[in-house]
Design goal:
6% of the residues lie in helices and 50% in strands.
Length: 471
């Protein structure tokens, strides 16, 4: 840690010295005055913390920082409790994501990528256990730690890497670049095993990725974590599939994009940009999969333990391109179909940075706070659309707006009707993705038991204001 702090101090100091190495006072002292009518040229503003390791800059090391703060009002699902008290609504302040990335091209063939940070840090510090002591100071962890080898110098045909990584299959939203999200948040259901058999969507993996012509590909062999190490209470055996509590199988996954126009960045391992804000012309056809043998287990009848494979796949189209370059307008759109087979009747409720800590008896397990059936065996359609208004909408340097809408529509085996979760919102892009405010409204269903199934019993809303700062 001392070495890390020393490096960061040196990096920041070098940036400051680079910008201040010749001040106006120093220039006047060292040179005679020159009469000119020309105004001084403004100094180009740097937008990154980067150290070049060679003269050309092809070898470099870079640091980024991201902070996403949420202010949120949520209508609680029925039965919700907060620190053992029933609550019909909540207001909370939290850190959805606080991250730092350290990465660089260390030689013609060697790339290093690391990410450290925390997620979902509100007054419950990511989780609340009324029967045990909690420690809000131990929430940050390494998200990624990857070493990568570029097989052909200056060519992205093949990169081979290994470590803790988000290089995933299934979809672009299974490995989202969170600093460039078009809406308030990503569709978390696409991070299919999040915090069950992975570490916040990261797995210990060996992978190959690259770009060949219009094709962008990544394939991975992953060593998933056992569900016993998730930090949550273990699920009970029953007729509904759960993650297997016995055995250990490797996971295979892949993701492929056919890029019709501009190529997307292939620099960092796995991460996919949310929106380029009109700086690129992107139209992709995409497909991906995740498969694991005997990943799930159920007990349909007493003494009849059945293991099932997990098989997930998706197909999608993604568009992000300028409409009027002179005005700076652009559009972002996505439409994806997901087939999610986690085994018979698998269903998992989840709520992002859930503001509730418990649930009264008599209500379906896991339905407190802002939770809804986010993951399940069945079929999901996810779509989003955003429109970037003209640049400098409020005057030069004062930013612009980007309204959006998105929907998750699912038919899961254990719910009696089609699920629909809908969001509308607007971004105030103060300085692109580097500084932005996002106001979002979500409308979701809540559920009651109906035999072994769950039936919708009403709907609730949530309003969130996010302030993102990124460099």
């Amino acid at each position: 840690m001392k070495r890390l702090l020393l490096f960061l101090s040196t990096l920041i100091t070098s940036q400051v010295m680079a910008q201040q190495s010749i001040s106006p006072t120093d220039t006047l002292r060292s040179q005679p005055p020159v009469l000119t009518s020309s105004a001084p040229r403004p100094t180009a503003e740097k937008n990154e913390l980067k150290v070049n390791l060679n003269e050309s800059g092809s070898h470099f090391f870079k640091v980024t920082f991201l902070n996403q703060t949420w202010l949120r009002f949520n209508e609680s699902n029925p039965g919700t409790t907060v620190i053992s008290e029933p609550k019909t609504s909540t207001f909370d302040i939290g850190l959805r994501r606080t991250r730092m990335q350290l990465f660089g091209q260390l030689s013609d063939h060697v790339f290093l990528y690391m990410q450290f940070g925390l997620n979902n840090f509100n007054y419950l510090n990511g989780g609340f256990n009324p029967t045990a002591s909690s420690n809000r100071k131990i929430h940050a962890f390494f998200h990624d730690a990857v070493g990568e080898y570029l097989v052909w110098k200056n060519k992205d045909y093949l990169k081979i890497g290994a470590g803790l990584t988000i290089v995933n299959g299934l979809s672009r939203f299974s490995a989202p670049g969170v600093s460039s999200i078009m809406s308030l948040d990503v569709p978390v259901f696409a991070q299919a095993t999040v915090d069950q058999t992975d570490q916040f969507s990261r797995k210990l993996s060996l992978y190959a990725r690259g770009q060949i012509g219009h094709l962008d590909y990544r394939i991975a062999l992953s060593d998933p974590f056992p569900i016993q190490t998730s930090g949550a209470a273990l699920p009970a055996y029953g007729p509904n599939a759960i993650y297997a509590l016995k055995g250990h199988q490797k996971q295979f996954q892949g993701f492929f994009m056919w890029q019709f126009f501009d190529k997307e960045s292939n620099q960092t391992p796995g991460y996919n940009t949310g929106t380029y804000l009109g700086t690129k012309k992107i139209f992709n056809l995409e497909a991906g999969f995740i498969t694991q043998k005997n990943a799930m287990v159920s007990v349909p009848t007493a003494g009849d333990t059945t293991y099932q494979d997990m098989n997930l796949w998706s197909v999608a189209t993604f568009l992000d391109m300028p409409l009027n370059k002179a005005k700076g307008t652009a559009v972002n759109a996505y439409l994806g179909y997901f087939h999610t087979n986690y085994g018979t009747n698998y269903l998992r409720f989840n709520g992002s940075m859930n503001p509730a800590s418990g649930l009264l008896s008599g209500y379906p397990a896991g339905t407190q706070g802002n939770a809804f059936p986010m993951f399940g065996t069945g079929n999901v359609v996810y779509t989003q659309f955003g429109y970037l208004l003209r640049r400098d909408l409020f005057g030069p340097g004062n930013g612009t707006l980007m309204p959006y809408a998105h929907a998750q529509i699912a038919n899961y085996q254990r719910i009696t009707q089609t699920l629909g979760v809908y969001n509308i919102g607007i971004n105030y892009l103060i300085k692109g993705h580097n500084a932005k405010l996002t106001l979002d409204y979500q409308n979701r269903p809540y559920y009651q038991a109906s035999g072994n199934q769950l039936a919708p019993a009403g709907r609730r809303g949530q309003v969130t204001l996010q302030y993102q700062v990124f460099i």
